[in-house]
Predict the structure.
Amino acid sequence: MSNPIIKVENLSKKYVISHQTSGRNRHGTLRDAITDGFKSVGKRFTKQSNTADPEHEDFWALNDVSFEINQGDRVGIIGRNGAGKSTLLKILSRITEPTRGRITIEGRVASLLEVGTGFHAELSGRENIFLNGAILGMSKVEIKRKFDEIVAFSEVEKFLYTPVKRYSSGMYVRLAFAVAAHLEPEILIVDEVLAVGDAQFQKKCLGKMEDVSKEGRTILFVSHNMAVVQALCDRGIFLTQGSVSNNDSISNTVNAYLTSLEQAKDDNLLHRTDRRGGGKVRVSRVTLHRAKEGSGNTESLFQVGDPVKIKIDFEGDCLGLECRFTIYEQQGQAIATFSSADRSELDSPSKQSSGFFVCDLEELLLMPGRYRINVALSGNHALQDHLEGAAFFDVEQGTVRGRPVLPNSYGYVHFPHRWSEI
């Protein structure tokens, strides 16, 4: 049996979170900074040294994580928001130092984590290609041999001599992925940054990662899209609150992850901590109602063809608030996305305080099965809140425009249709 290309042993990472106290920002003035500095020194020589500091909190993003990855493995790293996925990738990419534990990596690592990582903003696209190649330990001759392929794949030839600080996020990601995938690293690490690109480029990237894996190179891939993870990866590592909850085949790992989403259900979504975003606005509740006969009761079971009203309550306020939700089938395949931004300008308020959004579906055209809803709120030109598994519901057989839709039908969506005889 070959030695693992990546070996992680008892890996932990601690961050110290500062809290505001006494209604003021810490170090609001120079006097505050000097005073607090003397206090911290004084504590070292007094009994206060062992006393809990109310202004600081230890947060363990990773806690005693261990696993091995062999050459050629395609590993999906999955977990809810805040599970420690990005922290793990940053440590494996040598961007962040661990607090405890050790990692052993055999071979060159190319990482694509977040927009802005790995490139020098003042340098041109061309210069950054050579810089990244040098960081990976490649000679100038090796980089030149791959240069034309990188440029062609990234589709940024017209901007090759432009400083990357002037690139759009999509251009940046295209070039960054092209560099990471083509400079022949033994290990390719990709975070969800690919979501910035358009659908066509995402498909192109997935195809390239499949090619890379066929060459015997190792891939670590983080994504919330379970369908993509299952298509690309053969193994999965499921993180929960900084620890490995499951390390198995990708199908078993995804099933464990999806089960955990249902177990996290809570009518008051403000209790949920597995969320990401700025936090100026947060989803508080998601309810579904059968929108006929004036029924206002919350439901979780519907028939195909039912009119359904989806209500999303929130707390907080910010400018240009937009609500977006996506319906997923049981295995994590996205079925449809709905956005309040699709309304006309006259219907879109410039500012909206705590309240709710309502989306009416005239006909529920989903095939019988179990579904979940992920919700995102954006405002102030940034994501404010994102929750996975904010609501779950089941669909059973029903009738659409006089035609019965049975549970043994294939697919996820029913299209109203009619047949004609010749």
User: Anything to note?
Assistant: The longest helix spans residues 199-214. The first strand starts at residue 6 and ends at 18.
